[in-house]
Amino acid sequence: MKTLKSRLKQEIMPCYYVAGDDYYLFDKAVSMITTAMNLQLPDFNKMVFDDDNFSYQGFLNACEMMPMGSEKRLVILKNLTKISENDKKLMEIYLNNPCKSTVLIILDFYDKLSFVKNLCEFIDARRMDRNLSKNIIVADLAKRGKQISGEAVETLLDYSNGYLTNVMNELDKLVHFDTSESLITKKLVENVAIKNEDFAIFELTEALGKKDADRAMKLISLMEKEQGTLSLISNHFRRLFFIALSSDASNASLASLLGVKEYAIAKQRQQLGNFSKMQLKKIYSLLEEVDYKVKSGQMLIGNALYFLAFSILFV
Fold first, then answer.
1. Where does the pLDDT of residue 193 fall: very low under 50, low under 70, confident under 90, or very high at 90 and above?
2. What mean pLDDT value characterizes the chain?
3. Among 245, 243, 234, 152, which residue's Cα sits nearest to residue 201?
4. Using CA atoms, how far apart are residues 85 and 273, in angstroms rounded to an integer?
5. What's the pLDDT band for 194 if we cut at 50, 70, 90?
6. Is 122 helix (H, G, I), strand (E, B) or coil?
7. Poorest-pLDDT segment among 79-88, 122-131, 228-237, 278-287
8. How many Å apart are CA 99 and CA 114, to the nearest integer?
9. Which of 83, 183, 219, 308 has a CA positioned 20 to 30 A from the CA of residue 279?
10. The sheet that has 15-19: what strands, in order across it?
11. pTM of the entire structure?
12. What's the rounded Cα separation, in Å, for the pair 10 and 272?
């Protein structure tokens, strides 16, 4: 994604394959490509296919149709999850000899069309590193006549788990919260922005590890009404225990093994100093006990959250 602007200046390719986990970057890629190809009369020269309207023949017809009043035509395949093996083979045939007057953008958030990656110009839409994300946030706010403090941007990225999709949703609220103030502060972010559930669990785990009972109970009271909170806490501590036992393994290998993002492993490694391996082993056993009591009807989920939190505080 970082090099897309310069690549588009050099040449507009017949096919782009966009994959990753930050949907803001998907939309950004489409916008940049559309601008670079100078698409005219989009009502005639743009066609979007998804699971609801995709058929290979319809897709092929759209790709082979000549543009009207525009140098090129745009076809977008948007996050297909249903595609037959035969259609995959036919798509490969098309991509080996694509129509020169059509630009095809394949958006693959669910990683169902990775077989075309080597036949297209690849655009990496994975979550960006924090420095690049900060630059994007600052630039976006500058266009709106706003600034943001260093502490505020760090807090916003934490709350959004580093995803620009989440960040941009929160920025819209922050920009319009007080139109008379040009600077977005950390306090404003804390008061207005919504925390991503992963960050909320991270905060709770930090409070429990540091034996901050007041903070932990306050967080539990805010989270207890959300469905799945107990499961999220349990999964977090189980991963933490596994990371502690696999301290020599890389973040990437652990992320692949546990089926989570590498960023999540890196964040959890930061918490290992709050717990010994013996404490994590006891917590792991505690999780099994609580899970059994909830599933057998011996304990309500709300009570289980507080029981689990108090038990971890004194483990």
1. confident
2. 91
3. 234
4. 49
5. confident
6. strand
7. 228-237
8. 21
9. 219
10. 46-49, 73-78, 102-107, 15-19, 121-124
11. 0.69
12. 47
150-183 pLDDT, tens digit each: 999 999 998 888 889 889 989 988 999 888 899 9
Residue 296 above 80 pLDDT?
Answer: yes
Residues 6 or more apart in contact with residue 163 via CB below 8 angstroms: 21, 22, 24, 127, 196
Token look-up 């717990």 returns: 275
Contact 52, 84 (CB under 8 A): no
DSSP letters spanning 211-225 = T-HHHHHHHHHHHTT
Task: Report residue 165 as tokens.
Answer: 């999709």
- Please spell the DSSP secondary structure of 250-312, one letter per residue: -HHHHHHHHTS-HHHHHHHHTTGGGS-HHHHHHHHHHHHHHHHHHHTTSS-HHHHHHHHHHHH
Nearest residue to 106 via CA among 59, 169, 139, 147? 59
Structure tokens at 225: 């009404």
The CA R_g of the chain, rounded to the nearest whole Å, is 24
Q: How far is the C-alpha of 264 from the C-alpha of 244, rounded, in Å?
A: 14
Is the confidence at residue 252, as pLDDT, over 90? no
In order of 165, 178, 179, the CA distances from 146 in angstroms are 19, 11, 9
Q: How many residues does the chain have?
A: 315
Q: Tokens for 77?
A: 């395949």
Q: Specify whether the CB–CB gap between 213 and 223 falls below 8 A.
A: no
